[in-house]
Design a protein that fits this description.
Elements (H helix, E strand, L loop, with lengths): L3 E3 L1 H8 L3 H7 L5 E3 L1 H8 L4 H10 L10
Parallel strand pairs: 1-2
Helix pairs in contact: 1-2
Length: about 70
């Protein structure tokens, strides 16, 4: 089993609906992001984007979301 660390760019591409990013992100069972990546992505989100991001990260601690 491998764990994959995703960077900010692929998460932003996913949120913007880029098909290649969606495929890449859904290709792994165990993936993580850093707290820095989370902050970089969250700072650019509107409320709809935040809801989509919450749905993308199942099992997350609820305190992580603004």
């Amino acid at each position: 089993m491998e764990i994959v660390l995703f960077d900010t760019n692929i998460l932003i591409d996913n949120l913007e609906g880029h098909a290649a990013a969606v495929v890449e992100l859904t290709s792994y069972d165990d993936a993580i992001i850093s707290s820095i990546t989370w902050m970089e992505v969250a700072c650019k989100m509107d409320s709809i984007g935040k809801e989509r991001f919450k749905a993308f990260l199942p099992g997350r601690p609820s305190g992580l979301f603004i």
